[in-house]
Amino acid sequence: MVRVPTYNSYMNLLNRSLSTKAQIDLYSYQATTGLKSPTYSGYGVNAYNIVNIEAALGVTQNFMENNKVLDTELKAMNTAMQSINDSISDFKSMLNSFGASDTDKMNPDQTGGEITFTDNNEATYLGKTITINGIKYTFADNDDENTNIDLSAIQGDSGTEGYAEKVMELLKDKIDPAGTNKDYIFEENKFSFPLYTINGSSTILSADGVELGDAYAMNQDKASALKDLQNSAFATMLALADSLNTSAGGRYLFGGGNASNAPVNFPFKTLEEFQAYYDGINIKFPDSASAILSNMTFTAEDTGELTISRIEGNNYNISTEKDGGFLNKVAEGGAQSTGDVTFDADKNTITATEYHAFQSIKPGDTLVVGRGGDGSDDLSLIVKSVSEDGKTITFEDVDGHTIPESANGTVTNGAGLTFSTSFPVGAVIEMDGMGNNVAERVQVVSINTDGSLNVTADPNHFNADTVTIPSSSKWSLGTSSYYQGGNVDTERLISSNQSIVMNINAGDSAFEKLFRSLGQIAQGNMVDSRDLSQEFDGLVDSNFASDTISNAINLLQSAIDNSGDLNPTSTSSLNGITAKLSSDYVRLSNNTENLTLASTNLENSVGDLKNTDQTEAVVKALMASNNLQASYSILNNLMNLSLVNYLK
């Protein structure tokens, strides 16, 4: 018997139908997408796990995307290092081969210097000078001084044949009376000598009655080999600069955090241009890290009026109107800042009792120590090292730049002491805006305790022995490092618990030593070939070429593997940098593999929780559809059943 439906029974049947319809929708979604539910609430107790796993998957995939950028950068840096290693290896082979040959043939000819006395007139020689190994001898009419070559004994023979030979004999009696110096050869009226022993300012060399041998002659094969070596050194510098200016994705990779500017400034295009700048006599390529990496500028506002005075030859002094000259105070004695300060001449050290008293001072700095008096006992020193605790400074053992015995002792609380830095010794200073009467550049030889500079410069670029630069004009003196990048280390996360520190920049000591070694070889006048008859002061350095080659070999080896340098200031090396970048890339590659595996596992875990069997879902959807059709049919029949129809 069918009962007439009530409202409640109707609603129950309707809700059952709607529930069946919802099942059809769900099974249809599952059949189409393979997912159990379109919302997290549909996963029940697994929803929390799914959210956590998907969050971890998102982090992993973000690392993978970011690591693609780092992968490109490390590949580029490794490629650049491979290029640098290849270039340096080729140059090193050439340098070692050259250094193993007879470098003495590069020196001024040992016997090619010759003076022939040709005039038999006393007036030709009287009053003239000759400087041999730094001792000036004067051809005079008496023997009042030990360095006079007395011509009075042969005055009676003046104007007769043989007078010139007697002049030469007197010269021999003065400089080599025992005849033991095998470098000197006296033959009648000719004197043969090593070229480097005679000073070019000797006036006898330009006398009308004196003939000179060839000023200089180098073995042609050696000269050609040297030229090839210098060309190779310069080409390697260009390649080094190009590799260190490598960029990827708009970032300079060796910029030390300064990614937008090329880190290496190497403005020279040709060897000739380079040698015109670093002539090897007046301006030499810097021989210290502090000099080649120096960035320092002074203007009229800092110094007031400048006075540039010739000392002798190509040596000048630059003094300032304002006290302190070219000094920047970096530390000052005090109970809290330094504590007691001890000077030790034997160890060549200054030690404070307060930690980090000298932390702002760096190896290679030229340090002027003011001792609070009238300046007579102030010290100008070159820093060799600073202890890790910042309490002790050790200085280079350089003549004129060491702690004297008179300074030994302890200054209580550093009373009256000041510590100032200045341009590093060897730094090349650009003289901008000073006009045509001043050399374009000078090179620092030493810093005086009053803050003035002793420098070398091309004397041909000065028109007077003293030049004044007024403070009213716009000028500057400044040094510029080849490295124009930053010094910021960046840490790049490659996973949740791993990172790679990007701390290699073009100013690294290994690269600096490469530039320094190459520059010293490529500079001009590797062999000093000045004509001795020309006016210049100072002896030709006969060992400059061989010493430079030897130093360059040691410095290059130090740059490669930190060996060869007797006093290394850094443990960085080309091999170490290459190993670090290779290690970083291997770590990144291994990490990428791990992230890929982790991503796959996380995706599988999410899939296990979220996915369903689509075939089963289709069957369930069909069954639910049939149930829904039956429900609709019954519901329709009941909808048409009324009391009137029931009573019929």
Describe this structure in words.
The chain is of the alpha+beta class and 648 residues long. Helix 1 runs antiparallel to helix 12 (614-640). 32% of the residues are buried. The two termini are 14 Å apart. The strands form six sheets. It has an eight-stranded antiparallel sheet. Strands 13-20-16-17-18-15-14-19 form an eight-stranded antiparallel sheet, with no helix packed on it. A four-stranded antiparallel sheet has the order 5-6-1-7. The protein has helices at 7-33, 47-100, 122-125, 163-175, 220-244, 271-277, 289-292, 300-303, 509-522, 544-561, 574-610, 614-640, 643-647; strands spanning 113-117, 129-132, 135-140, 148-150, 185-187, 190-193, 210-212, 247-248, 251-252, 296-299, 306-312, 315-320, 328-332, 341-344, 349-352, 366-370, 379-386, 392-395, 409-411, 418-422, 428-432, 441-447, 453-456, 466-469, 476-479, 490-495, 498-502. The chain is elongated and about 165 Å long. It is built from 13 helices and 27 strands. Helices cover 37% and strands 19% of the residues.
